[in-house]
Every structure is written in C-alpha cells, then in structure tokens.
Amino acid sequence: MLKEIAVIADLHGNMPATRALEEDLRRRKIDTVFCLGDIVGKGPCSAETFDWACQHCQVIVQGNWDYGIGEKLFPNDQFYYDQLGPDRMRRLRELPREHVFTLSGRKIRLIHGRPVMQNLLTPSASAECLLPLFEPDYDVVGYADVHRQGLRMVDTKGILFNTGAVGNPLGVTMVQYAIMRGDDDAALDISFVTLPYDRDAAIRDTDRHPGLPNGALFKTELSTGVYARSHLKGKS
After folding, report:
1. How many Cα atoms occupy the beta-carbon half-sphere of 42 within 13 Å?
2. pLDDT at residue 115, as a whole number
3. Dist CA 149 CA 169 (whole Å)
4. Helix and strand numbers, DSSP H then E, in the chain
5. Inter-axis angle of helices 15-28 and 46-56, to 10 degrees?
6. Cα–Cα distance, 217 to 206 (Å, whole number)
7. Contact status, residue 41 vs residue 165, Cβ threshold 8 Å
8. C-alpha distances in angstroms, 149 versus 101, 110, 117, 118, 119?
C-alpha cells in the first residue's frame, strides 16, 4: 500500500507560508507530516507556527533555533520568549533531535542539521563529511537547516536530501518541502515541492512587530531569497 509523508522544516514564524503549505497538503490529501525543526524564530509569529506544527505534525525534531530559544542561549531573543510563553518553551527543550523509521525497506534518519551537527551542513560538503551521517546502517538521511532543497547520492552509503524551508526559503522565494512515497514493492520516491505564497502578507506581519529581532533582515530574505545575517554568530 502506498504511503505518503510530507517532510517539512523551517517554518520560522511565517504564517502566510505555513497556511499555503497547509492548503497544498490538503489538496494533495497528505495527512502524515514530519517536521525537521526550526518551527520558531526569525519571523513574527512563532507562537502560531509552533501551535500549527504541534497540531498537524506527527513528528517534530528539534532545530538549532528551537534549541537556542528553548534554552535561552541568545540575549536578544526576549521577543520570542515573551511570545511563546513557558509551556511552549519547555516543549521546545523536550523535542527529540532525530527520528528514525523504515519506509519501503529502507532505514531512514531525519535530523534538522544543527544541533545534531556541530556546523552547518552545506550542499557542497565533502563525501567524507557526509559518511558519518549514515552510520551505522542508514540508507537515507533527510535534513533541513540550509533552507535550500537538494538531493545527493553518497557513494557506498545512500541518499541524502534536504527539504528546503517553508517560512524562510533561500534561492527560490517559495514554500519548499519534500514528499516521500513508499510501498510494499520497495519502491521509494523522494520529490520536491515549491509553491508561491503571499510574501507581502508575511512582510506586513513583520512590520506589525517592530520589536522582532532583526526584522529588517528577515524581510530582506523573504524578498530576495538571499541569506542576510552572516554576521549573527550561531544563527541561520
């Protein structure tokens, strides 16, 4: 029997993008959703995207922003702490850092990237850097964190894919996510989705929250798809 799983990530407080995603999932009749983290931070509506993920996702793994905000690692993030409140902050801290499951006979590992990885896993990373991700016996590894979709065949190991970002996409300024399809005949399909959303609404949401840390940088990234915060240590 065919099983379809939407693999999403990086909602980042962007509700217009999240609503576009929800409508696309409804249209495709996909009701199994795995989220690879960073459901909060950067954008103005972290409480809303957190609640959406908890309502719609069967799996949520912890991303670097979820970890950093949940543990209060950055002094300028009081906006997010106040918006989320103590219960959501506690739940951010308790999110698992990976999810392992089997589909079409393949053992699949899903992570965000950081904080499991020490550094950002870029699309151009060497095969030597990628091999440990597949240990001891994973056939497929899915991750997020870099906000760009991609798929690589890692020699002698298997498939590495990136979901792209829902709420903070780079490269292509559209909602990005992946779909995994598997069946009893052991066929496995990984496809990528991009869809437009109301970016102007997301920018207006940002303007309505003048206390949002680095809101101008977030608007730049929404508008251009170009990373704008390389000077902010520990964040992406």
Report:
1. 34
2. 94
3. 9
4. 7, 10
5. 20
6. 10
7. no
8. 21, 15, 18, 20, 18
Cα 197 to Cα 167: distance, rounded to the nearest angstrom: 10
DSSP 83-150: HHHHHHHHHHHH--SEEEEEETTEEEEEE-STTTSSS---TT--HHHHGGGGTTT-SEEEE-SSS-EE
Distance of CA 19 to the CA centre of its chain: 15
pLDDT reported for residue 232? 63
Burial class (CB in 10 A: 0-12, 13-18, 19+), 21: buried
Kindly give the confidence (pLDDT) of every residue in the chain, 236 residues in length, as a single tens digit, with 9 standing for 90 and above.
889 999 999 999 999 999 999 999 999 999 999 999 999 999 999 999 999 999 999 999 999 999 999 999 998 999 999 999 999 999 999 999 999 999 999 999 999 999 999 889 887 888 888 999 999 999 999 999 999 999 999 988 899 999 999 999 999 999 999 999 998 888 999 999 999 999 999 999 999 999 999 999 999 999 999 999 765 655 66
Q: What per-residue string of b and e applies to 186-202 under the rule 16 or more CB within 10 Å gives b?
A: eebebebbeeebebeeb
Q: What is the largest CA-CA distance in the chain?
A: 53
Write down the CATH superfamily of domain 3-224. Answer: Metallo-dependent phosphatases (3.60.21.10)
Element of type H or E holding 192: strand 188-195
Within 8 A by CB and 6+ apart from 86, the residues are none
